[in-house]
């Protein structure tokens, strides 16, 4: 069977997560260093309080952006790949009918198959190209609505 999603991509995501966390730890250490340096250099308490509050506000906002946006998107993709590998897979043997854009999400293409006179619409991310031919029979493994593996059957 041909895998649509490569396990190397999963390993790359784990590596990128480690780099992001290491970068965040370095940013925290840098932030603490700047605050400490400011305490030694600035003698005016009002100016020090303003600088501390602005740096703290910037740090909190950048942390929220980091954890909620960058890290969570990467983590979501990792969980998706993990579900592909360990999730409850289903099988489908059917004929490919057509490809169309997914209505739910613009990042996925919808592939329609007919199996036992029932139409089934399954999704593949647009970054991955699959050369299904209309009228050909395929064996599909999928998790949820997402195609995980496929093979051409005769």
What do these coordinates show?
This protein has 2 helices and 6 strands. The protein has helices spanning 7-41, 45-86; strands at 2-3, 90-101, 108-115, 118-125, 137-143, 146-153. A 6-stranded antiparallel sheet has the order 1-6-5-2-3-4. The protein is elongated. The two termini are 14 Å apart.
Lay out the secondary structure.
Layout: E1 2-3, H1 7-41, H2 45-86, E2 90-101, E3 108-115, E4 118-125, E5 137-143, E6 146-153
Antiparallel strand pairs: 1-6, 2-3, 2-5, 3-4, 5-6
Helix pairs in contact: 1-2
Defining key terms:
alpha+beta, 154 residues, single chain, 6-stranded antiparallel beta sheet
Q: How far apart are the first and last residues' alpha carbons, in Å? A: 14 Å
Order of helices and strands: EHHEEEEE
Report the β-strand fraction as a percent range.
Answer: 25-35%
Largest sheet descriptor: 6 strands, antiparallel
Helix content range: 40-55%
> What is the number of helical segments per DSSP (H or I, 4+ residues)?
2
Query: Can you tell me the overall shape?
Result: elongated
Radius of gyration, Cα only, in angstroms?
A: 24 Å
E-strand count: 6
Query: What oligomeric state best describes the polypeptide chains here?
Result: single chain
Strand order of the largest sheet: 1-6-5-2-3-4
At a glance:
By secondary structure, this protein is of the alpha+beta class.
């Amino acid at each position: 069977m041909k895998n649509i999603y490569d396990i190397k991509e999963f390993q790359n995501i784990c590596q990128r997560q480690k780099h992001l966390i290491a970068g965040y730890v370095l940013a925290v250490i840098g932030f603490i260093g700047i605050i400490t340096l400011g305490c030694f250099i600035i003698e005016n308490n009002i100016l020090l309080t303003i600088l501390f509050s602005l740096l703290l506000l910037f740090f909190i906002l950048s942390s929220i952006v980091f954890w909620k946006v960058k890290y969570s998107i990467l983590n979501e993709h990792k969980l998706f790949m993990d579900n592909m590998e360990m999730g409850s897979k289903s099988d489908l043997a059917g004929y490919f009918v057509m490809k169309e854009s997914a209505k739910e999400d613009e990042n996925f293409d919808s592939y329609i198959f007919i199996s036992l006179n029932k139409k089934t619409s399954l999704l593949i991310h647009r970054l991955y190209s699959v050369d299904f031919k209309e009228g050909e029979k395929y064996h599909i493994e999928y998790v949820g609505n997402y195609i995980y593996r496929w093979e051409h059957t005769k």
